[in-house]
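Structure (tokenized):
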């Protein structure tokens, strides 16, 4: 994939993609407690999909389990932090 430092940069900035319109939500996702859900609004359905993909990537890289529920018509993403056993 790339060097370890570039990989860490990707993880740190995985949802900080202002150039693609994805809101900076990675810090909020990291702070979530197990069972907590948060809903984020986006300007269009493509950004919702991008944010969901980035959320799963963040979880994989940082060993945090998330469940995403997308509402493309409403342009919303609801993320729930799950327990490891879920």
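Design, position by position:
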């Amino acid at each position: 994939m790339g060097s370890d430092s570039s990989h860490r940069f990707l993880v740190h900035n995985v949802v900080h993609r202002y150039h693609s319109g994805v809101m900076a939500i990675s810090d909020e996702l990291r702070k979530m407690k197990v069972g907590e859900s948060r809903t984020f609004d986006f300007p269009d359905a493509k950004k919702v999909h991008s944010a969901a993909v980035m959320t799963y990537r963040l979880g994989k890289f940082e060993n945090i389990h998330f469940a995403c529920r997308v509402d493309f018509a409403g342009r919303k993403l609801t993320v729930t932090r799950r327990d490891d056993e879920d």
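Reviewer-requested clarification: The chain has a mean pLDDT of 79. The radius of gyration is 13 Å.
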